[in-house]
Write a structure and sequence with these properties.
Keywords: Membrane, Transmembrane, Transmembrane helix. By secondary structure, this protein is an alpha+beta fold. About 30% of the residues lie in helices and about 30% in strands. The protein is built from five helices and nine strands; from the N terminus they run H-H-E-E-E-E-E-H-E-H-E-E-H-E.
Length: about 180
C-alpha cells in the first residue's frame, strides 16, 4: 500500500503543475484574444468607439448595454502618448491593459476630479528619460507607466437614460489617444 502512495502523490503534483502552466500560458497562445478582436475596430494610437452589443454578439464579451465603450490600442514604440477623455454627467472610466489583457491601471471621473481625464502613458524607459521638474507636481501631471510597449485602453461611459445615448457618444468622440506634444 505504501508503495502505491508515492506514485499517486507524484502524479497529482505533476498534473497540478502541468495544469497551472497551461492556464498561465493560455493568454499568450490565444489567437483571437481581446487585442486581436479590437484590432478590427481601430488602428493603434487612435480612439475608436465600440458598437453596442447586439443579438449577433459583441466585440468584447459580457459588454454592458448601459455603457458606451471606446478603445485605443496603443503602441509606445514611437514615444509616449497623451490620453484625454472628457467626462460625462453620470460616470466615466478609463482602464489600461497590457497586450495580453492584464490590467495595470484604472481611473474614473470621481477620482480624477476634473471635467477631462488627462493622462500621459509611457513605458519605464520613457518615464526615466523625463526631466525632473520641481514645478510640476503629481497633481498637475498624471503619468501612467505601462509594463509593455503595446496594450489596450478601454474607455467606458454610463448612459443613464436612453435619450442621452447620442450626447454621451458625442462626448466619447472627443476622446483622444495620441502622441504627447
Amino acid at each position: 500500500m505504501t508503495r502505491l502512495i508515492l506514485p499517486i502523490v507524484a502524479g497529482i503534483v505533476l498534473g497540478a503543475i502541468v495544469h497551472l502552466v497551461a492556464v498561465l500560458m493560455l493568454p499568450y497562445l490565444a489567437e483571437q484574444d481581446a487585442y486581436a478582436r479590437l484590432s478590427a475596430v481601430g488602428s493603434p494610437n487612435m480612439v475608436a468607439q465600440i458598437d453596442d452589443p447586439s443579438a449577433l454578439g459583441a466585440v468584447l464579451p459580457a459588454a454592458d448595454p448601459a455603457f458606451i465603450s471606446a478603445v485605443c490600442l496603443y503602441d509606445l514604440g514611437e514615444g509616449p502618448l497623451k490620453v484625454r477623455v472628457p467626462t460625462t454627467e453620470d460616470y466615466t472610466s478609463v482602464s489600461f491593459y497590457t497586450r495580453y489583457g492584464m490590467p495595470f491601471y484604472a481611473i474614473n471621473d470621481r477620482s480624477a476630479g476634473r471635467s477631462i481625464i488627462e493622462l500621459d502613458l509611457m513605458n519605464a524607459k520613457q518615464r526615466a528619460a523625463l526631466p525632473e521638474d520641481e514645478e510640476v507636481t503629481a497633481a498637475d501631471r498624471l503619468i501612467v507607466e505601462s509594463p509593455s510597449d503595446e496594450g489596450i485602453v478601454i474607455i467606458r461611459a454610463l448612459v443613464r437614460e436612453r435619450g442621452a445615448r447620442d450626447e454621451v457618444r458625442a462626448r466619447m468622440d472627443a476622446a483622444t489617444c495620441g502622441p504627447a506634444s
